[in-house]
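queue> holo job accepted (manganese (II) ion)
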Amino acid sequence: SRPPPVIRYNMNNITATADPEGNRENILLLTPMARFYPEYWANLLRLTYPHELITLGFILPKTKEGNEATAALQKQIAKTQRHGPARDRFRSIVILRQDDEPALASQDEGERHKLANQKARRAVMARARNALLFTTLGPDASWVLWLDADIVETPPSLIQDLAGHDRAVLAPNCFQRYYDEETRRAEERPYDFNNWQDSEVAQKLAGAMGRDDILLEGYREMPTYRALMAYMAQEGKDEKFEVPLDGVGGTALLVKADVHRDGAMFPPFAFYNLIETEGFAKMAKRLGWQPYGLPNYKVYHYNE
Ligand code: GDP
Ligand code: MN
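queue> job finished
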């Protein structure tokens, strides 16, 4: 029998351009998932980027909750890939189960956001993201879209809109819809505080820290005076308006695959006193890729 054929990829033919659809660019859409939300899947199905150019990758913890999420995810995958209309079907789908401990025993919002739990939790999340990235990033991906499992609403043209900026790392602004008991109206509030521009105060704080300590954003106990993209949104203003960022979150983030190929990953340790997605932004920057954000282009996080 013959030996298997050799497959050659000319990496300079794999482009990441402002017209990804026109250039038939492959997207690797990666989601760490502790819980499955039907709204997340429904939103994926609504994405207008050609699904045959999208590969989905998931990593789920090996907990009871993770098992339930995996079962729910697989049910939806079977529906879409086997029984759904052809245009809904994605190119391929990979599911990984985490081989280390889950980020937290309880996944409730209050418990997740406690300062004392942050370093260990963010380190586990970083490992999960790295495992997902390094096992799924093949030679033909142009872009990696990070999208958390609790992002339940984005513009359907999310991929085209973000890629259109032709930035190496680009974060939309992540908000949360809620019902305001006082005004009795549907309102929205900022959710992801990890998209920020650095401040002198934060730099000084980091300078006085031990090398294994990390700075965190959004905690009263640790005021950083960074400029948060979450608060830069302006009602009715240009959705294309860009700001440079020093830290990014992972709720929704478009990255040129070459940034990851260069070695930018999610440090599960203190890297310049930053961890996980914020450490990733720093690493990308050190590699020469400046991250940007879109204050007026919104995606929405589930409200527990
Ligand atoms: P928050 O919104 O900043 O509180 O962060 P989340 O708890 O929502 O976590 C971010 C993303 O990682 C979401 O998509 C979660 O479903 C997922 N996630 C949370 N914990 C774990 C974990 O232990 N393992 C994996 N694989 N994913 C997780
Ligand atoms: Mn979340």
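queue> Residues 32-35, 59-61, 98, 102-103, 112, 124-125, 128, 148-150 surround guanosine-5'-diphosphate (ligand 1) (CB under 6 Å).
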